[in-house]
Design goal:
Layout lengths: L2 H7 L4 E6 L4 H11 L3 E5 L8 H10 L5 E4 L13 H11 L5 E5 L6 H10 L3 E8 L6 H13 L4 E7 L3 H12 L5 E7 L6 H4 L7 E4 L12 H11 L3 H9 L1
Parallel strand pairs: 1-2, 1-8, 2-3, 3-4, 4-5, 5-6, 6-7
């Protein structure tokens, strides 16, 4: 059973926390204790990426919905190796995780990553990141179409908001997405509100952190969790239906 798919079916805001491989056993225990919805394992930021080490870290989070990300350096990640090696890691973890995240810009491997995920009933998140600005709505619509064409179950759009107009552009993208599963984030201080209120418009995950803040505009897990509970009264009840 894919636990993340089951949670998404409840149409409840979900909180994802990113983890590297720094004391995974302790981090996994902390995530379980805190009630983290989704553990995003940032394999691109692991101290080692040999298969045995990576799989050991994934298994440490057994029992939690796990999203595996091997983010390319071109889109702000820590992966600087070859694409064949990155594809190999995605294929190795696909049987053990609930979802994978691969960039649309990774043209050489994106279709194969999606296929590997689907072969093991994992969700494929196809993502786009822009750390400089928010493109216009036409360009963002083209990204969404491209992601769907390669088989995305969920399309993730994360762009830098330099003013309120950018937040409105991203909100419009989300509201008009139809039945496309979306994760939409406005990065930067101006975009912080999107991390709490875009789930009300249909964004499926909001990302946060425990400890070190990885991305501009994120709130920490405790504050994010408190605000989600405040503004989404059904959060605990619906999530409890899966936990039970």
């Amino acid at each position: 059973m894919n636990d993340l798919r089951a949670l998404l079916a409840l149409d409840v805001p979900l909180i994802a926390v990113s983890f590297s491989d720094d004391d995974s056993e302790r981090a996994a225990a902390q995530a379980r204790s805190a009630g983290v919805d989704v553990a995003e394992l940032r394999i691109d930021r692991f101290s080692r990426t040999d298969v045995g080490h990576v799989l050991a870290q994934v298994r440490a989070f057994e029992g939690l919905p796990v999203l595996a990300t091997v983010r390319s350096a071109a889109e702000g990640g820590g992966w600087s190796g070859g694409e064949e090696a990155r594809l190999g890691l995605f294929r190795e973890v696909a049987p053990l995780v609930d979802a994978v995240d691969v960039e649309l810009s990774s043209r050489g491997i994106v279709a194969d990553v999606v296929a590997a995920a689907h072969a093991h009933d994992a969700l494929a998140i196809v993502s786009y990141h822009n750390f400089d600005h928010t493109p216009d709505i036409g360009e963002l619509d083209a990204v969404v179409r491209g992601a769907k064409e390669v088989g995305a179950d969920i399309v993730k759009i994360s762009t830098m908001a330099t003013g309120p107009a950018d937040v409105k552009t991203l909100a419009s993208l989300l509201v008009n997405s139809g039945d496309t599963g979306m994760i939409v984030i406005a990065m930067g201080g101006i975009g912080t509100a999107s991390r709490i209120f875009f789930p009300a418009l249909g964004s499926r995950l909001t990302y946060t952190f425990i400890g070190h803040q990885p991305t501009s505009g994120q709130l920490d897990y405790a504050e994010t969790s408190a605000l989600i509970r405040k503004f989404y009264p059904d959060y605990d009840r619906r999530k409890g239906a899966i936990d039970a």
